[in-house]
Amino acid sequence: MHLLLIRHGETEHNAERLGKALAETRGLRFTHIFASTLQRARLTADSVQKHQARSLANDDSGSLHKVPQVVQSGLIIEHDFGSFELTTKWSALADGDPDTPGFRPRETADAMKRRADRFIEDCLLPLVVSEGKSQAEEAVVAVLSHGMFLKQLWKSIWLRFRPGSVSFAPTDGSIPPPSSSSLGEIGRWSNTAYLECTIRRPRPSPGALVAKGERDFVLAINRSDHLHDLKRDGVGNSPYDVKQQSIKAFFSQQTQDL
Q: Total domain count for the chain?
């Protein structure tokens, strides 16, 4: 399996740059695309899918690759901060009383780990096992999610391998080295950055989560070179953002609030 764990784009333009780079510059042909149900991840996944479709439409080599559907999953949404969502540190301290009506506690680390494990079991592991049982083409998988959850998802994947079976094998000199002594502890995901790895399963092992001799080669960590030459040309040249309101709608809302 060739796996990319991708953080969503902050803007539509970032997502477009990512989609174009993966399809055209990298020439990746995804067989599966999974996305969080939250808007930014979903829109970024749509961009990845769109650029793959364009690339395949222009491919006259007779390739049999198909454009996969984007599979949305609530298992890979961001860490739920509950009632603390979008609050400052000080307002959270002031308003964090569990006895307040409507208060929702933040998601625990164990709960987020359970989501990550279930996603691995339900969505990723079957693809790895299928590769080991047949001569089917390699699964090339994109997972579009969020920074904190991706950190947990990668750690959960890493923990399934035997000690020493995960190694850093960069294929491009521009890829930064691990920022931690442990490959299982990745510090952060930047805007549209991704962790890229390959999982090799040399022989099937029924009933086991990891086959004998299975290895994971990490090719990139927090890779975002597709944004390196990005120029900020001012708001007027920015692409349309679905979250933006018109001036008329903004002032209409202000009037209603008075």
A: 1
Q: What is the CA radius of gyration of the chain?
A: 21
Whichever domain contains 230, its CATH number is 3.40.50.1240
Q: What is the per-residue pLDDT across 203-252, written as a single tens digit (0 to 9) for each?
A: 555 545 455 557 888 888 889 888 877 655 443 344 445 555 554 454 45
Q: How many CA atoms lie within 13 A of 181 on its CB side?
A: 0
> Domain range holding 64?
2-82+96-257
Distance, CA of 84 to CA of 36 (rounded, Å)? 20
In a domain, 249, yes or no: yes
- Cα–Cα distance measured from residue 72 to residue 75, given in angstroms and rounded to the nearest whole number: 9
The span from the CA of 175 to the CA of 152, in Å, is 21
> 177 is written with which tokens?
């080295």
* Residue 237 CA from chain centroid, whole number: 27
pLDDT-derived band at 133, boundaries 50, 70, 90: low
In three-state secondary structure terms, 3 is strand
pLDDT at residue 254 above 50?
no
Write out the two tokens for 16: 């477009």
Alpha-carbon gap, residue 50 to 69, rounded angstroms: 10
Helix 12-20 / helix 39-57 crossing angle, nearest 10 deg: 40
Q: Is 21 a member of any domain?
A: yes
